[in-house]
TrEMBL record:
SUPFAM superfamilies: alpha/beta-Hydrolases, Galactose-binding domain-like. The lineage of its organism: Bacteria, Pseudomonadati, Pseudomonadota, Alphaproteobacteria, Rhodospirillales. This is X-Pro dipeptidyl-peptidase. Keywords: Hydrolase. Gene3D superfamilies: alpha-amino acid ester hydrolase ( Helical cap domain), alpha/beta hydrolase, Galactose-binding domain-like. It holds the Pfam family PepX_C. GO terms for molecular function: dipeptidyl-peptidase activity. It comes from Azospirillum palustre. It comes from the Bacteria.
Length: 551
């Protein structure tokens, strides 16, 4: 059962705030890191909130959070630090390589600052969220709480690859932005301009779409080639990833994770919650709302800010105030616009079977409760000249969310399977999984899966999706496509639809069909691929959903 959880907005007597001070520290290997310090202009000591950023401490992630003064006025010392090789801090920025040690050193230093009570919490989203996990793995004594948002858990599977496919648009945007910052630090005006322009309009029409000229010319400024040329998990990825360090994380640090349905790193956050929730000695909470990694997305109903969510958490775990309540898991319903509190994230236990008469890419197939009696085969041809575009979802920055994908579903290279309209409301809240019997006439091919709600007015709005690259020799009988979780109450008259295609571009590179790596694939190298989708008793393709909850 679920219930509507009220959003608590704590009331505070605001404190005056001192003008910001620039302060510096030295890491254990002697690198100077600069920070801005905000603290109440009042007697007493206060918990410290530490925000470590790669994008400039003066900006202070105000794209997502209130200005540090807002927190200082509510009784906190706030430290916003430029990471190694960022802003005015010394050193060279190499993603995730130094954040474990630097983060732990920063926590110990922050605990000793003027006005500090000695208790430190960390916050921040994206990279700044992953930096919290890495600092936690070093177990700094003063750290009491972390609040990573839109962060993930594993660098390989949450930042670089998904289902074996390179996260083209997401990885390229971030690489171009960090490269532009690196060029700016050394006053390379031309490089900064070229890279900044490319970040605003991705050069995916380049001769080599996954390795465009801008990134080839300025490879010295970015990690992009290292990620693009390392397409399998292994020691190099584990050395950067909180997932590989989880056994070192202390159990007495409170954890609040804030994720978004349109955030590319949501799956990793769910994995982190599953791993940490059993530790037992400190509270662990997961909140998933109508957000993308770039901030709030449009949604019905009242949506709290990241600040109100985490302030209530900090008041509880740092000050002992009962300012926040709700279940260990709080999910925003993307259809109904309300919140559900759950003890845990439900597993995918209900089954819908794919069924067809062989024309799922023309007139559509079906999602059925019962196994179909007859075998069926649907044939979809992927043409690399006109790949199926990415429409909404989580995988393309600045284009996330729930746009109507009805037009895409009418393409002949998309197979759709739709349920009967519902007679009464149905709430789905939890994980989704897909098992599909599939094969192709090429050594390598992709399978893109999107689960949507078909509203009575004909709109087709995405709920969740998954993508898998099948490498030569990989088993596909059945192929498991890792889809993301969802939370949605379907109204009477609505239906569920599964859409399957051989591409989702530019979220992921167009598979050339040859088995070649994306960084080696020119546009001219890609070949058409015929994909065969089976269903029926002998090859039962099926969609697994969380069991229906009370609406």
């Amino acid at each position: 059962m679920t219930h509507l959880a009220p959003m608590i907005h704590p009331l505070h007597s605001l404190l005056p705030v001192r003008p910001p001070e620039t302060v510096s520290m030295r890491t254990r290997d002697g690198v100077k890191l600069d920070a801005d310090l905000y603290r109440p202009d009042a007697a007493g000591t206060w918990p410290v909130l530490l925000l470590r950023v790669p994008c400039g401490r003066r900006v202070a992630l105000t794209s997502h959070y209130a200005h540090p003064r807002w927190y200082a006025a509510r009784g906190y010392v706030v430290v916003v630090q430029d990471m190694r090789g960022c802003g005015t801090s010394d050193g060279r920025f190499r993603p995730f390589e130094a954040e474990r040690e630097d983060g732990a050193d920063a926590v110990a230093w922050a605990a000793s600052l003027p006005g500090s009570s000695g208790a430190v919490a960390m916050y921040g989203c994206g990279y700044a969220g992953m930096a919290q996990w890495l600092a936690l793995a070093e177990a700094p004594a003063a750290l009491r709480a972390v609040a990573p948002a839109f962060a993930g858990w594993d660098v390989f599977s949450d930042w670089a690859y998904e289902g074996g496919a390179f996260r083209l648009a997401d990885a390229m945007v971030w690489a171009l932005r960090t490269a532009a910052d690196a060029a700016k630090r050394v006053e390379d005006g031309t490089g900064h301009r070229v890279l900044s322009d490319a970040a605003r309009s991705l050069p995916i029409d380049d001769e080599i779409p996954s390795r465009p000229q801008a990134l080839r010319d300025y490879a010295r400024y970015t990690h992009y080639d290292d990620w693009l040329t390392n397409p399998a998990p292994g020691p190099a990825w584990a050395a950067l990833s909180p997932k590989a360090m989880q056994d070192s994380m202390p159990a007495d640090v409170a954890v609040l994770q804030i994720g978004g349905w349109y955030d590319p790193r949501l799956a990793g956050m769910l994995d982190a919650h599953d791993r940490l929730k059993t530790r037992g000695r400190a509270p662990v909470r997961l909140v998933v709302g109508p957000w993308s990694a770039d901030g709030p997305a449009a949604a019905p109903g009242q949506v709290p800010t990241l600040d109100t969510l985490q302030l209530a958490w900090f008041e509880r775990v740092l000050k002992g105030e009962v300012a926040d309540r709700g279940g260990p898991v709080r999910l925003h319903d993307v259809e109904a616009g309300r919140w559900h509190d759950l003890p845990d994230l439900p597993a995918a236990e209900a089954v819908l079977h794919l069924s067809s008469d062989g024309l799922a890419n023309r007139q559509g197939g079906r999602l059925e409760l019962e196994m179909p009696e007859m075998e069926a085969l649907d044939v979809v041809v992927h043409d690399p000249r006109t790949p199926v575009p990415t429409v909404g979802g989580h995988a393309v920055p600045d284009a996330c969310g729930r746009p109507d994908r009805a037009a895409v579903d009418r393409r002949p290279d998309v197979a759709t399977y739709t349920s009967l309209p519902l007679d009464e409301p149905l709430t789905l809240a939890g994980r989704v999984a897909l098992e599909v019997w599939v094969e192709a006439d090429a050594p390598s091919f992709d399978v893109s899966a999107v689960l949507s709600v078909v509203r009575p007015d004909g709109q087709v709005l995405p709920l969740t999706q998954g993508h898998t690259r099948v490498e030569p020799g990989n088993p596909t009988r059945p192929l498991t496509v890792a889809m993301r979780a969802t939370c949605a109450t379907l109204a009477p008259g609505s239906a569920l639809r599964l859409s399957l295609a051989g591409s989702c571009f530019p979220a992921y590179p167009v598979n050339p069909g040859t088995g070649a790596e994306p960084g080696e694939t020119r546009r001219v190298d890609a070949l058409p691929i015929t994909v065969l989708i089976h269903s029926g008793p002998d090859r039962p393709s099926r969609l697994r959903l969380p069991a229906g909850l009370s609406a």
